[in-house]
Amino acid sequence: MAKAPYVLVVEDEAALADLLRYNLEKEGYRVSVARDGEEALVVAAEETPDLVVLDWMLPKAPGVEVCRRLRGRQDTRNTPIVMLTARVEESDRIRGLDTGADDYITKPFSMSELLARLRAVMRRIRPGLADDKIVCGDIVMDRAQHRVKRRGREVRLGPTEFRILDHLMQHPGRVFSREQLLDAVWGSDVYVEARTVDVHIGRLRKALMVGEEADPIRTVRSAGYAIED
Ligand code: CA
């Protein structure tokens, strides 16, 4: 078996650091926690992390400085870095700074959203390392095998329904408009009517629900669709 991917969590808030460690270990990652920027650089030098989750507000060296220093080192030059920031405005500001982080997530975040984002980053940068199983409630998607199961039952989906479900499951709880789903699933250069999305959502629901099973997809009137977290 391949060695479990190694994640360095840099977070001074002990409760959040513990929560991150617990959930990441549950996902099968190996985890080290550093409480400040200096410690992060020391720990990262001991064993090169496969991924760094980096808080923006840190004692000693701020997250942005840690990010730059990691980028400047040979062994961590290409290590994916996901920044945690406190507010939406802060994320926007950090984006503008071009710190070299691969993704940003705004506190407070749901653990499933963070894990989905980390999986996406890992997949993009090191396809071999990513866990290709996504779980949402009682639905399990195996992306490598292109299979979906609900409560152990095989769900047969057409390619479009599969891509819609994949997109929704990667961002559990988040509402996507028809236009956003069109862009994500069909691509922005293809002309497809927005109503087509409704048709495929209908087919997806039908495939996912057998008998009395609850509808996992939430319709938000005049806004779009989301999968329950
Ligand atoms: Ca902090």
The name of the CATH topology of the largest domain is Rossmann fold
The whole-number mean of residue pLDDT values reads 87
**What about the largest sheet?**
5 strands, parallel
Order of helices and strands: EHEHEHEHEHEEEEHHHEE
SSE topology:
Layout: E1 6-10, H1 14-26, E2 30-34, H2 37-46, E3 51-55, H3 63-72, E4 81-85, H4 88-97, E5 103-106, H5 111-125, E6 133-136, E7 139-142, E8 147-150, E9 153-155, H6 159-170, H7 178-186, H8 194-208, E10 217-220, E11 224-227
Parallel strand pairs: 1-2, 1-3, 3-4, 4-5
Antiparallel strand pairs: 6-7, 7-8, 8-9, 10-11
The structure holds calcium ion (CA).
Write structural notes for this entry.
This protein has 229 residues and is α/β, with parallel strands linked by helices. Helix content is 41%, strand content 21%. It folds into two domains: 6-129, 3-Layer(aba) Sandwich (Rossmann fold); 133-227, Arc Repressor Mutant, subunit A, CATH 1.10.10. The protein contains eight helices and eleven strands. Strands 2-1-3-4-5 form a five-stranded parallel sheet, sandwiched between helices. The radius of gyration is 19 Å and the shape is elongated. The two termini are 30 Å apart. The protein binds calcium ion (CA).
Give a short summary of the structure:
This protein is α/β, with parallel strands linked by helices.
Summarize this structure as a short list of keywords or feature phrases:
single chain; Arc Repressor Mutant, subunit A; 2 domains; five-stranded parallel sheet; 21% strand
